[in-house]
Structure formats: structure tokens, C-alpha cells
Design a protein that fits this description.
elongated; 20% strand; two-stranded parallel ribbon; alpha/beta; 35% helix; 347 residues; binds S-adenosyl-L-homocysteine
Length: 347
């Protein structure tokens, strides 16, 4: 077993090297195996029927394909699906599949739990356990496609965890998912959402795959943002905005600003002006997210307050949309994913 490789952890070059150099196979065999895994979602070597029987028997000992196993699946009245997965070490993560007409989006987790402890988020309340590996990120997506019985067109790294605190694994998983001989998912179909990890945003400009960037802002001055998102103490607004300017200068890419609307906390009209002033000179699109309560601390802004906030943004020529709430009846909406373990999950 010692020479066995963990398939989903490998990028294309590693696959090639393994198949040609370690196993002495011809190059096209690599592509065949990748096609089974990434296109056809076949995770059992014995079912890879264009490989000879002897080869399959040999490979079964040398290649371990270990996608996360599905523990539970729930479907919301609006069609949103939530998946609970179990990883090899028994840890559990959730991911969500959202459908919008002819495309669909996988909301993927990057960590088991989250270390950021944002005051309004359910994931943060459960603490942080560990980073996901590249293979666990990729496997989550492939297993979701298999369970859903359909190809998924978009990925947003907006599930549990802070993707840019797991940068190395995140970037590797993006390369694997993007590679034309592997999953072939286009760069513009992948979005990283960050709470504002400045070095991570800077590193993103070096990533050769131009994925999209979303930034969770939620507070328009340091005092409020420190309270809502403790990570702001480490990367205050000034440093975040500077990183976004540099990002935009290098990539030319518009950035999405996520802004969760919390009643009487960050939804005053003055704060809409403050938001506009803060973003002056940046090309942004604002997503106003009606807050999904996780306990009694905060309440959702009323529709009127959300609309009044948006109206000011439009007057100041900032494009925005109010995100439609999806999946809240099964706790699959933004910020509602929680870390679960075997004992506490309701099976
Ligand atoms: N750590 C990353 C990605 C995960 S959170 C980030 O912060 O961007 C995905 C989005 O959901 C973030 O914008 C987050 O602030 C938001 N969110 C968290 N809790 C929420 C809640 N209870 N209601 C609505 N949105 C929430």
C-alpha cells in the first residue's frame, strides 16, 4: 500500500508523472483515468472499463479515490440542496447547491469550521478545527455533482471557512478543477469570497487562473467592523482597500462587495454614503444580503431599510442587488452552516 497515491490530491503534472514514470503507462492512460474521475464521476477503478482488467486490478491497489461520503442530503422548498459530508478522519463539512434556471452554483467549504469568529455567523460559533486538503475541496465538488446527477456550472468558496487562510490548498484545488484534462471548469465560473485577508488578496493577483473575487465588508468603519469581524483588527479597512486597489490595477477585474444587512447595526442610510466614500475609485458591485439570524443577537433589516440603503447606492452610481434568500428552511442560507460532529448531527 505504501506506494498508493491519493488521487484527488494530485494535479495534472503529478498524475502524468505517476502514471508514466511510476507505473510505466502510456500518456493517454492518464487522460483516460482523469476522464473517469473528473468527467464521469466514476470513483471505482473496477468500473473504468476502457482500462484492461489486469490494469484495473493493479491500479486498484495503487490509486486511492476517496471522495467525501454523503451523510445526509436535504432539499429546501426553493430547490436548494444541502449536503453533509464525512471526511476520511471523520470530520464533517457542509456544502450547498443553488439552482438558478440554466445554471447552478456549488457553495463549497474550505475549512472544517472557521477561525474568524465573525459575530453574526453560525460557522464561526463552532470554532475551527482544520484546513481542508486540495483533494477534500475537489472531492466535495465532484461528490456533489455525482449526488446531484448533473454537472455544476459555478463554484463559490462561500461555505464554511475562510478560503484565503487555506491558500495553498485552495489554489491547488482551483488548478485541478480548471485543468482542461481534469474538470475543465472555467476561471470565470469560480469565485473566492474572503473576509479580507490582505496577503491572500495580494497572492490572488499572482494566481494564473483569473477567478473572481468577493469581499465580505459588512462594516464601513473600523470601529464597527472590528466588532462584527475581529479579523479587521489585523487587516483594517485602510489596508484592505489598498489591497483591493492594487488587485484591481493588476487584474482589471471588478470586485463584488458583500454586505449583510443587520437591523440598526450597519443599515443606516449614512452608512450607505460611508460605503460609497470608502469604495471611491474602485470598480465594485454590491450584494446586499438580508441577514439570516443565527441567535438572538442580531435581527434582519426590514425590506424598507434594505431598499432605502440600495437607493442611495444607486444615486451614487454604485450597482447593487439584493440577494434572494435561498435554502433558509433547511439552514442552508448564507452564514447558517455549522460544524457538526457525529454525536450532535441529527441523522
Ligand atoms: N469566510 C468567507 C466565506 C464564507 S461566508 C467570507 O467571509 O467571505 C460567506 C458569506 O456569508 C460572507 O459574506 C459572510 O459574511 C456571509 N454571512 C455569514 N453569516 C451570515 C448570516 N448569518 N446571514 C447572512 N450572511 C452571512
Amino acid at each position: 500500500m505504501s506506494e498508493a497515491v491519493v488521487a484527488l490530491e494530485m494535479n495534472y503534472d503529478e498524475w502524468l508523472e505517476f502514471c508514466t514514470e511510476k507505473l510505466g503507462l502510456q500518456r493517454y492512460r492518464t487522460d483516460q483515468i482523469c476522464q473517469w474521475i473528473y468527467e464521469k464521476k466514476v470513483f471505482n477503478i473496477y468500473d473504468m472499463t476502457n482500462l484492461g482488467k489486469d490494469l484495473r486490478e493493479d491500479l486498484a491497489y495503487k490509486i486511492l479515490i476517496l471522495p467525501p461520503s454523503l451523510v445526509k442530503q436535504e432539499t429546501s422548498k426553493d430547490g436548494t440542496r444541502k449536503f453533509l459530508w464525512q471526511l476520511q478522519d471523520g470530520q464533517r463539512i457542509e456544502s450547498v447547491l443553488l439552482s438558478h434556471g440554466n445554471h447552478n452554483t456549488a457553495c463549497i467549504s474550505s475549512q472544517v469550521g472557521c477561525p474568524l469568529a465573525c459575530a453574526f455567523c453560525a460557522t464561526g460559533k463552532g470554532g475551527f478545527l482544520r484546513n481542508l486538503t486540495p483533494g477534500e475541496i475537489v472531492g466535495q465538488f465532484l461528490a456533489m455533482e455525482k449526488a446531484a446527477g448533473q454537472n455544476i456550472t459555478n463554484i463559490v468558496f462561500m461555505g464554511m471557512g475562510e478560503p484565503l487562510l487555506n491558500q495553498e490548498a485552495l489554489f491547488k484545488s482551483i488548478k485541478i478543477l480548471n485543468h482542461p484534462k481534469m474538470r475543465g471548469l472555467g476561471a470565470r465560473h469560480m469565485t473566492i469570497s474572503t473576509a479580507g485577508i490582505v496577503p491572500g488578496i495580494r497572492a490572488l493577483t499572482e494566481l494564473e487562473i483569473p477567478v473572481r473575487l468577493s469581499v465580505s465588508l459588512h462594516g464601513t468603519n473600523d470601529m464597527l467592523r472590528n466588532k462584527l469581524m475581529p479579523i479587521n483588527q489585523q487587516y483594517p479597512l485602510g489596508s484592505l482597500i489598498e489591497a483591493l486597489r492594487d488587485y484591481q490595477q493588476k487584474t482589471g477585474d471588478r470586485v463584488t462587495i458583500e454586505y449583510v444587512m443587520i437591523d440598526r447595526v450597519n443599515d443606516n442610510t449614512e452608512q450607505a454614503y460611508e460605503l460609497a466614500a470608502l469604495m471611491n475609485g474602485l470598480s465594485i458591485y454590491v450584494n446586499l444580503i438580508p441577514y439570516n439570524p443565527v441567535d438572538a443577537t442580531y435581527r434582519r433589516s426590514s425590506q424598507e431599510r434594505i431598499k432605502a440603503f440600495g437607493k442611495i447606492l444607486s444615486e451614487l452610481n454604485i450597482e447593487y442587488e439584493i440577494r434572494r434568500e435561498k435554502g433558509s428552511d433547511i439552514n442552508a442560507a448564507c452564514g447558517q452552516l455549522r460544524r457538526q460532529n457525529e454525536k450532535s448531527s441529527r441523522l
